[in-house]
Amino acid sequence: MKIAVVAANGRVARKVIAEALSRGHEVVAFGRHAENNTQAKDYRQKDILDLTKEDLAGFDAVVDGFGAWKEETLPLYSTTTQHLADILSGTDTRLLIVGGAGSLYLNPEHTMQLFDAPDFPADYLPLSKAMAKSLDELRERKDVKWTHISPAADFQADGERTGKYILAGEEFTLNSKNESVISYADYAIAMVDEIEKGHHIQQRISVVRA
């Protein structure tokens, strides 16, 4: 398959690129910096908001690895996601978003989210709410083949690649050890599996270590 990864120098994006390449897929990486820190041989310097329909034409899937941490940049989660959705509107190209865990639901009625819990870390609240807002806006898009993939709450950059994960839905899920944890490497496996299988169009799914 032909896969584009935007915000490609991010740590999760780099793992997704490595996983996709290891399976023989063709990967084009887009990043706003001149340096290519990914394994992709085809790297194109371009900011997400400067991407055009022509840039992303002909891809089977586009992976959005955008990340922001400062309060003034958090609104870019919505801006960048909607820009990519506009570009891909009406096409067969899938849009896969690297999401967060904070917006996962804690009850079957979907009235309480993880970031509503009293013990949710205050430092992560603005980030989680910005990502949740972006997801809510994405849910309104019926013109794009999007999939939003939330990691477990403990998302480990340097965690081991076990090759196993539990595919879950909108609700916060624990594994058999009562843990909500996954490594970037295992998350990347789940992402590329979803690209290959394409089972969750216009849905949010989540993954946790098996």
Structure report:
InterPro entries: NAD(P)-bd_dom, NAD(P)-bd_dom_sf, Polyketide_Oxido-like. It holds the Pfam family NAD_binding_10. It comes from Mitsuokella multacida DSM 20544. With 210 residues, the protein is α/β, with parallel strands linked by helices. It has one domain: 3-Layer(aba) Sandwich (Rossmann fold), CATH 3.40.50. The chain has helices spanning 11-22, 76-88, 125-139, 184-197; strands spanning 2-6, 26-31, 42-45, 61-64, 94-98, 145-150, 154-156, 165-168, 181-183, 203-209. It has an eight-stranded mixed beta sheet with strand order 3-2-1-4-5-6-10-8, with helices on both faces. Helix 2 packs parallel to helix 3. The longest helix is centred in the middle third of the chain and has 15 residues, at 125-139. The chain is globular.
Keywords:
8-stranded mixed beta sheet; NAD(P)-bd_dom_sf; 210 residues; 4 helices; Rossmann fold; two-stranded parallel sheet; oxidoreductase activity, acting on the CH-NH group of donors, NAD or NADP as acceptor; alpha/beta; 10 strands; Polyketide_Oxido-like; NAD(P)-binding domain-containing protein; globular
Q: What level of helicity do the residues show?
A: 25-40%
Largest sheet: 8 strands, mixed
Mean pLDDT over all positions = 97
User: Which fold name corresponds to the CATH topology?
Assistant: Rossmann fold
Number of domains: 1
Name the CATH class: Alpha Beta
Shape: globular
Total helices: the number is 4
Secondary-structure map with pairings?
Elements: E1 2-6, H1 11-22, E2 26-31, E3 42-45, E4 61-64, H2 76-88, E5 94-98, H3 125-139, E6 145-150, E7 154-156, E8 165-168, E9 181-183, H4 184-197, E10 203-209
Parallel strand pairs: 1-2, 1-4, 2-3, 4-5, 5-6, 6-10, 7-9
Antiparallel strand pairs: 8-10
Helix pairs in contact: 1-4, 2-3
